[in-house]
Predict the 3D structure of the following.
Amino acid sequence: MEDEKLVELALDGDDEALRTLHGRYVQPLFHYVYVQAGNHHDAEELIQDIFFKMAKNLARFQGKSSFKTWIFAISRNVVIDYHRKQKKHKATTFMPHSTLEAFTEKVHSAEEEVLDKGLKNYLLQTMNQLPTDYQAVLHLRFVEEFSVKETAEIMKKTTFSVKALQNRARKKMMSLIREEVGEG
Amino acid sequence: MTDKNNNPNSEKRDEGHPFPTETELEEAMKEWKMEPSDKTKRESFQRAMQGIEEARRESSKRNKMAKMKRWSQGLVAAAVAAGLLSLIVLNTDEFQNMFGTGSGSVGNDNENEEIQVDNNENESNEEVDVTDLNESNDTNEANESDDNNDAPDESAEFPEVNRPETKEITTTPEGMEEVNTHHLLNDPSMPFTTYIRDGYYYESFDKEFGKGVTISQQDFDMINVDIVFFDDGVTEVEALQYAEEEWNVAGGEALPLDEEEKLAGWIVEKVVHIGDVHGEMIVGSYEESYFYIYSRYAPEAGDGWYPVKQVIVDEWEWKETGEQLND
């Protein structure tokens, strides 16, 4: 069933519809806030806040954008608020390696698997050193695979700004990774 | 840094080199997934349930309030209509003749005096009364039809706007006069109207702290203007913080402003920044609330940006008062 239909049903009192919506988005949103918050405890609080705000404002969703875009826009606002409160615009907290176990991975050849594990270590470390907007644009574009237009909607920016931001973020991330491995 | 980093998309990973090209990085991010624990899932769903229950309660309360409001409006309109009708009837010769009372047999002496005053007034007064009565009836009809629709009438928030849909406006980009067709921007959620140049369009949007419109080019993506009104209760300090947050993301450098650049009475703060994207953030106040006008443009679009933004500000008119922003 489409998200928009589930929204209608949830507003009409169907709790199962809300549960389905929650089930669809809890993982990608958790991933998004975990990377941006940099720690599990805050990510848990943020994800609760997001779902509360989403549900409370559900009647305001008009279907002009996709539900996914809408809920990610809410999440972005929650994360911005969080950073404002934490005075933590440039998060430097590194995630513990134990969190790597939470990842689901595609299994490739042995060589690629080693490569992937190494790469994911660097993804975590470098993402957490990036400014929050860089994290957000990279996450929305490459993890969630939103289009430039959708990313612009979520981030309340023009498509032009998103493209420029994405280029800068990608360059910065590559430079950080290469510094980490002694190439920079 | 090796030469291959200059062309990352075409680079190949060296033998034994464990680190990615940019393409590999993007691929890895696509496959990157983090799973919340069962506890996180359970607790976040509980919060969602709390949210939806509040939403349902508020929705039910709003519907009741809206119905009560319409009912009371209808009652007042009916009372006014009845009052007007009785005045007309009491002033009508046929009615008075019917009872053979002339001008004063109904009610006490004070009432007779009032009726005589009414009779001394000219006929146009009666016409006005009839018009009023018709209007009252119209209001009743409108109220009745409203009862079929539970959604509140948001368009009634601001007075009707009587500005032409299009307007020819002269600007002087680079000192040369240029006449362009401009279209009325009249969004129901915004307390102002203005004109935007042909070739631009606008969309409304919600932000965490308010709502606004964004004005963009139809065929290019070089110039963009956001106008956002903060929610009631947002203080000046908070408004400035939010605004700073907005322009900070452009990543440019703020430029110092001359004092005369801040002269307009409505301007609380103005920041101009340059970088990969140039921008101008103006935070303004209106009555007891705040708003900002944030325009951004690609450096190569600088000449085209100024007249576009200037028309938006010059043509800005408040719906409530009809006053201009720069009055």
User: Anything to note?
Assistant: The first strand of chain B starts at residue 33 and ends at 34. Chain B touches chain A through 55 residues (CB under 8 Å).
